[in-house]
Amino acid sequence: MDATVNGNSRFLRRGLKIVHLRLAAALGETGAIGIAAARVGISQPAASRLLAEMEEIAGRPIHLRSGRGIQLTPEGAALARRAARALAEIGAAEREVADLGRGLSGHVRLGAVTGPALDRVLPALRAARVALPLVTTEVVVAPSDPLCDLLLSGGVDFALARLAGGRDPSLFDLQPLEDEPVSLLVRPGHALARAGAIAPADLLAYDWVLPEPGTLLHRTVLERLAALGLPPPPGRLSTSSFLLTLAMLRESNAIAPLAAAVARRFAAGPEAGPEAGLVVLPIDLGIVVPTYSLVTLRGARLTPAAERLRDLIQAQTA
């Protein structure tokens, strides 16, 4: 006859209990019913009764008397080994449930625009490796508009972003964090990087790599240039791809406005060689992208793990 019927163990149907498993595991370790009973926290007569119950449940002898102790039969040894494994799994389940409740394990999905991804998410993930070693994280770096879509679809738990135009603000909870100053980056060896002084009009002699028209950074750059009395910059490439922007900068004389957090990570000094990082131009046009926020769906409750990672991110400063 099979040991299980429709997933229901015959042992369980016959009354096998946790205390039986604990005694079996203790007998497997000690070979002495008195010591095993003490480990389980019961009297020796009670342990003897439980042992008799286990043999009735198993339908086979599981021990033999051996001097002052007992010797497990092959069936008894198998039961003791499996009992120890089952108790270990129960203990692991207890720890996992407790860790999930405290946010010490789990999986977190978050999104961020590029600057906050470097300034806040990256150092928070470094801290989480120590504080939350069992939490796994998935990070989506993208513009605010697709991040809002991911929030609405449940693709991320929270995002560091801005509420994209046309979005219903009643659907989101926003905690404002910081605005983003913008720097201008070029390749090492660029003529402007070697110039002693740069006038704003000098910048218009070169192509600019901007995000697609309609994006927040694109609008912010054009509005600031207009406020300075300057026309839109020349540009034959528009892209929100960070990697493509970096490649274009390294292989041409183009200029790219990027968040200062990005510039700090990838910039080298103005005298850097051609294999070094990019160079921040020594001119501040006063381009500042409006404040980004920690964005969640209104009324949504974060998992404990997501709450802990969110708190680590909030603790970072640019």
TrEMBL record:
Keyword Transcription regulation: yes
Pfam family, one: LysR_substrate
Cited SUPFAM superfamilies: Periplasmic binding protein-like II, Winged helix' DNA-binding domain
InterPro entries assigned to the protein according to its UniProt record, in alphabetical order: HTH-type_LysR_regulators, LysR_HTH_N, LysR_subst-bd, WH-like_DNA-bd_sf, WH_DNA-bd_sf
Domain spans labelled HTH lysR-type: 16-73
Keywords tagged on the record: DNA-binding, Transcription, Transcription regulation
Transferase listed as a keyword: no
Entry's family note: Belongs to the LysR transcriptional regulatory family.
PANTHER family, sorted: HTH-TYPE TRANSCRIPTIONAL REGULATOR YBHD, NITROGEN ASSIMILATION TRANSCRIPTIONAL ACTIVATOR-RELATED
Stated name of the protein: LysR family transcriptional regulator
